[in-house]
Design goal:
The complex is a heterotetramer of chains A (about 400), B (about 400), C (about 150) and D (about 180).
Chain A: E1 11-18, H1 29-44, E2 53-57, H2 61-64, H3 69-73, E3 84-88, H4 93-106, E4 112-120, E5 124-125, H5 148-163, H6 167-180, H7 195-200, E6 203-206, E7 208-209, E8 218-227, H8 228-234, E9 239-248, H9 262-275, H10 280-283, E10 286-288, H11 294-303, H12 312-317, H13 334-337, H14 342-357, E11 372-379, E12 384-391
Parallel strand pairs in A: 2-3, 2-4, 10-11
Antiparallel strand pairs in A: 1-8, 1-9, 4-8, 6-7, 9-12, 11-12
Chain C: E1 14-18, E2 23-26, H1 30-40, E3 44-48, E4 54-55, E5 69-73, E6 77-87, E7 93-105, E8 112-116, E9 128-133, E10 146-151
Antiparallel strand pairs in C: 3-4, 3-5, 6-7, 6-9, 7-8, 9-10
Chain D: H1 13-17, E1 23-25, E2 30-34, H2 36-47, E3 51-55, E4 62-63, E5 69-70, E6 75-76, E7 80-83, E8 86-97, E9 103-115, E10 129-133, H3 138-142, E11 150-155, E12 168-173
Antiparallel strand pairs in D: 3-4, 3-7, 5-6, 8-9, 8-11, 9-10, 11-12
Chain lengths: ~400, ~400, ~150, ~180
């Protein structure tokens, strides 16, 4: 693995765009991608002619009900007569799209890349969650009729058992993120709730209850990522991609300790080494850990080495991760508050850090000064960790 | 000079109409196991990044990248999936190495069409659900029929020329152990067959076969540590003309994505002069017979509307000035879904290493590889290779 | 596994499975909603882009990425390219061959894909066609509200 | 970001289903997965009432469920090992909803069982194990006692076994 990576041409994010996150959208998937990508280009002051490569991220085709979905989203993502690939690491795709865009630019092949994440879950009937019946091993697991929440519940239970975290401790994440989301115009389920509301919500798969889970969402988000010299011409506050990391564990999640995401830890080390970060818990100013479930934010804070294993829920109680705290996490409102259109959710989180590092997050702007940020996405069967480190 | 990228190992398994004896992950293990032996690398220590190419609905699994890392040695290592043809995965490997993030990258692609019971319905699921899929068209390959008719109308190529491509490739395939659909086919055999999708007979449409192909790429310095029989990847290009939700914007009878991909690849390879003299062989797209002629024109290996004339003169035969698809192409080897591009690349690499066997093109030093992702996409990829 | 495979078919297990939800419901999209209303009314829409070109059917945004302006497309319609499907992907002959065409109206730069209701022997490029709509009460604002195109 | 009105047109459920131009499509995506030699043998073992694992010749790991290859050494696995059908509960949950998110009348208890397979450190990061149903009451599953509880496979009667993971009915506590 290459360690002291000398890249003559640094890579920057210069624009971000996002659609509102909705339970049901009128737009078709390609129109959602178009709306987000066009906003990102407008924000960067560029047009489609300036784009020379496109990277698309979208999770299971079985949601939108369109096979070869990368091809279906191509024109919506601006890839008409352009090099385009769709990258795919399950739920980790959202952060992986800008990670892949990094080597499109750093290799010298592309100068300006449109990185687009889209997900439309509402077409699947009777319920989008039914799609998750098909993520399992067809022979060993599917006969047990598993649904997705089972695997999260098992991981949450293991985290609670190993780290001594109670449900009321974990519910604070949902309270924090849904409150943060009140200031996010894209939010689908922002709300002022209390720990009691979480503990009284419908029990889906104990210990997971309704308000522990992010919603099903239609939405898209996009970033414009360019080389250093293009960035210098386009904006006076580019946000540099300083570290990228990604790791996939094997698919046998039933053969590993679920309390600690080792795959995410390896991905984080890869990204931190590239960014020259030795003590992330000190050097990272703001973070967007992936939070499809409330316990998962704590799980990922520990995987990202922003807190020691089993310590995150204690710091949470002290307000350490609040917007005015020592290390704000999910100032965007996260998946729990803004929504979870799988592949677009990760791009939304990177977009949030883009706005935070440019002090353009408005009411969501964290109080402390920010120089270095980290976002991660998680995916597959408890096996994919994707990490990006940004700096201004 | 930016870092040169070389192919240091190839491995494959399958190329048969069905492979019931292996689980799809077993097939991936077989091809990667052979590729790592060929490159004499240890995947658990020497390979930095693993790229896999597959699509959910070809595999029957909703997040199919979950099953990628284990069999190819990528467990707990940087692994990701490109939802596209294997050649797009090679493009990512090229970028990973040029950017310095990785020195050695493994790319695997596979297809097990024999396990898809409702292949036609899965094809239709890729069609625009609003404006095209609802139409009672009867066969998803009607899109290829429209392009074939438009191509023949524009260039004057006739049904005999299409038959000549099919006969050439299926006969070439007789010499290639990876070509289950080869046959001593004559033009008359093809002309006497009824149309399946006008103007294509069943001989003009490649069948499907199961296969997994793994390719190991490395930077110039890293390559020296492992092998001395390197095939250089001088250029790679890929492009998309329009989305499958806007096929109505497609330039019928053309494959502009292959022209754009070729221009990108030739620029990277520094091919200033006219490309037609630059190559000793070409492995190009032929899952529909007319596509070989159209590909040659989009790759500028023949002037527009001239490919079928050169074909008549035997210019593309095995002994001719520019052998095209000496391996038999997809018409003889079959279509392996997302591994089809790597099948073309595999054949070209073996030719440049002088290891092709009976269908070896003597003294082959430079080759071009081109693939299209098939109906209903308009995405192509092109690679330019040269012997080490 | 490399060396100890089972060749004997008796030892080989194949496991039937599927990857299907009950059904998909696709919304028509921004322009699609207006096209649906027009189709119910027996009219076909296109979109005009900033370069003045009209594309059909309307797809909300143009190849140049700007938003298209809806316009009605009246034709006359001509067959630009066509194919005839005689058998399905598995090689089964269809009872009746299906003629599929790219059908371009004079007042647009591209054609739509649709079925041509004519005997394959009578079909030629450039022939004039007209859309045949289903009876009004059977229309639902979808592309198959046009049952087919037939020689004008 | 400076923009407050974001693109996107929200629909309520009623609005969506009353839209003109809605297109319905019933997907047909059926497959016949080749189980391959390892999984075929594993299923055969289940039919005979045995849980089979596979051992790596190089690192000695015993994999349950078995694979064709060792993912840490990237070599083909060789010997078969019958492993005990006893183990401890790694995690357990109680499900009140079905695959289609409908409420279940009777909740289901499911979990991960760490099997008593030699060669893995007692509470190491990796272990051989199965994901399966647990025959314990929901109350017991929610109590702290269940984590680490000793369990054993409850096999279906021989004539009802078909060579599937369901040949094990569940894992029940060893009282």
């Amino acid at each position: 693995m290459v360690t002291n990576l000398f890249v003559k041409d640094r890579v920057a994010i210069v624009g971000a765009g996002i659609t509102t996150f909705m339970r049901r959208a009128l737009e078709t998937p390609r129109e959602l991608a178009w709306e987000a990508a066009r906003m990102a280009l407008d924000q960067a002051g560029l047009t489609l002619k300036d784009v020379d490569c496109v990277v698309i991220g979208s999770a299971p085709d079985t949601f939108d009900g369109v096979h070869l979905k990368g091809e279906y989203l191509a024109d919506g993502s601006g890839a008409i007569r352009k090099p385009m690939t769709r990258v795919y690491v399950g739920g980790g795709t959202g952060v992986f799209v800008p990670v892949s865009a990094w080597w499109h630019v750093a290799s010298g092949l592309c100068k300006t890349v449109l990185a687009v994440g889209e997900e439309k879950m509402s077409p699947a009937h009777p319920h989008p969650q039914y799609v998750f019946r098909y993520i399992w091993d067809p022979i060993i697991h599917r006969p047990l009729e598993p649904n997705l929440i089972w695997i999260f519940a098992m991981e949450m239970r293991r985290y609670m058992a190993k780290c001594g975290a109670k449900k009321e401790d974990i519910a604070l994440v949902s309270v924090k993120n849904k409150r943060n989301a009140l200031d996010n115009p894209a939010a689908q389920v922002a709300a002022n709730i209390t720990v009691d509301d979480v503990l009284k919500s419908e029990v889906l798969v104990w210990p997971v209850q309704e308000l522990d889970v992010s919603p099903v969402t239609d939405g898209a988000a996009a970033l414009v990522i360019t080389s250093e010299n293009v960035a210098r011409q386009v904006t006076d506050s580019p946000v540099w991609i300083e570290g990228v990391g990604f790791t996939l564990d094997n698919q046998h999640w039933e053969n590993r300790e679920l309390a600690f995401p080792r795959y995410l830890n390896y991905a984080a080390r890869m990204a931190y080494r590239m960014a020259g970060i030795e003590r992330p818990w000190k050097e990272i100013d703001v973070a967007e850990p992936y939070d499809p479930f409330d316990y998962k934010e704590l799980h990922h804070i520990e995987g990202l080495m922003l807190a020691r294993p089993c310590e995150a829920w204690k710091l949470l109680k002290e307000g350490y991760f609040n917007r005015d705290g020592e290390l704000p996490t999910s100032p965007s409102g996260g998946l729990l508050g803004v929504g979870n259109p799988i592949a677009a959710a990760g791009v939304m989180k990177v977009a949030e850090l883009f706005w935070q590092l440019r002090y353009e997050a408005g009411k969501r702007q964290v109080k402390r000064p920010v120089h270095r940020a980290v976002a991660n996405a998680w995916g597959d069967l408890m096996q994919a960790g994707t990490v990006i480190v940004l700096g201004n | 000079m930016p870092r040169r990228v070389g192919i240091i190992g190839v491995g494959w398994y399958g190329f048969r109409p069905s492979t019931p004896e292996v689980h799809f992950q077993g097939m991936m293990f077989e091809s990667s196991h052979r590729a790592y032996a060929d490159a004499n690398v240890d995947p658990r220590k020497d390979v930095d990044v693993f790229v896999d190419c597959q699509e959910d609905l070809w595999e029957g699994i909703a997040i199919t990248d979950e099953f990628a890392p284990e069999p190819i040695g990528g467990a707990l290592r940087p692994t990701f999936t490109v939802s596209g043809d294997g050649l797009l995965g090679v493009a990512h490997a090229y970028m990973l190495i040029r950017s310095g993030l990785a020195d050695v990258v493994a790319v695997e692609a596979h297809g097990k069409p024999s396990e898809i019971r409702t292949l036609q319905d899965v094809y239709y699921m890729a069609f625009d659900p609003l404006h095209v899929r609802p139409l009672p068209t009867g066969n998803p390959f009607f899109l290829a029929g429209l392009d074939a008719q438009a191509y023949m109308q524009r260039t004057g190529a006739s049904r005999e020329h299409l038959a000549l491509v099919s006969a050439k490739n299926r006969t070439n395939g007789l010499k290639n152990e990876r070509a289950p659909y080869s046959a001593r086919l004559t033009v008359d055999d093809v002309l006497s067959a009824p149309y399946a999708v006008y103007p294509l007979t069943r001989y003009d449409i490649a069948d499907f076969s199961d296969a997994s192909v793994t390719v190991v790429l490395a930077s110039e310095e890293a390559a020296k540590r492992f092998t001395d029989k390197v095939v250089w990847l001088d250029g790679i290009g890929f492009s998309t003309e329009t989305g499958s939700g806007a096929v109505e914007w497609h330039a019928w009878g053309r494959m502009l994505s292959m022209r754009d991909a070729a221009l990108m690849a030739y620029k990277l390879a520094g091919l200033a002069g006219s490309p037609s003299e630059s190559f000793d062989l070409a492995e190009v797209e032929d899952r529909f017979s007319f596509m070989e002629l159209l590909s040659l024109e989009e790759l500028m290996l023949a002037k527009e509307g001239e490919a079928h004339r050169l074909l008549e003169q035997g210019h593309f035969n095995l002994g001719g000035p520019l052998p095209v698809n000496p391996s038999g192409g997809s018409l003889a080897m079959g279509v392996q879904l997302e591994a089809t591009g790597l099948a073309r690349l595999l054949e070209a690499v073996l030719q440049l290493r002088g290891e092709a066997g009976p269908h070896q093109v003597k003294g082959a030093r430079k080759a071009v590889v081109a693939t299209w992702r098939g109906v209903p996409t308009y995405t192509s990829a092109v690679a330019v290779l040269s012997a080490g | 596994m490399s060396w100890n495979k089972h060749g004997r078919l008796h030892d080989i297990i194949t496991w039937p499975e599927k990857e299907e939800v009950d059904k998909y419901i696709y919304t028509p999209g921004l322009h699609g909603l207006e096209l649906a209303k027009a189709l119910m009314d027996g009219r076909i829409l296109g979109m005009r882009c900033s370069d003045g070109k009209v594309y059909v059917p309307p797809k909300t945004f143009c190849p140049d990425y700007g938003q298209g302006v809806l316009v009605e497309v009246k034709g006359p319609w001509r067959l630009q390219y066509y194919t005839v499907v005689y058998e399905d992907l598995y090689g089964n002959r269809l009872e009746k061959p299906v003629v599929v065409g790219v059908i371009k109206p004079d007042d647009a730069v591209n054609g739509i894909i649709h079925i041509v209701n004519a005997d394959p022997s009578k079909v030629y490029v450039g022939m004039e066609l007209r859309p045949v709509f289903r009876p009004k009460e059977q229309r639902r604002g979808v592309i198959t509200d046009i049952q087919y195109f037939e020689p004008a | 970001m400076s923009v407050t009105k974001l693109p996107g047109t929200k629909l309520s459920s009623k609005e969506m289903y009353s839209l003109p131009g809605l297109v319905e499509s019933v997907p047909q995506a059926k497959y016949d997965f080749s189980a391959g030699p390892t999984i075929s043998r594993f299923l055969q073992g289940l039919k005979e009432g045995k849980i089979l694992g596979r051992k790596c010749p190089r690192c000695g790991r015993v994999y349950v469920p078995p694979r064709d290859y060792c993912e840490y050494c990237h070599v083909a696995l060789t010997d078969w090992v019958e492993v005990p059908d006893t183990g401890t509960v790694h995690t357990a949950v109680v499900s009140y909803i079905s695959v289609k998110r409908e409420r279940l009348e009777k909740p289901e208890v499911i979990g991960v069982i760490r099997l008593d397979v030699p060669g893995y450190p007692p509470n190491g990061y990796e272990f051989a194990g199965l994901f399966h149903r647990l025959c314990v009451s929901p109350e017991e599953a929610m109590s702290d006692k269940v984590i680490g509880m000793k369990v054993r496979a409850r096999w279906k009667p021989k004539e009802q076994r078909t060579g599937s993971i369901l040949d094990i009915e569940c894992f029940e506590p060893v009282r």
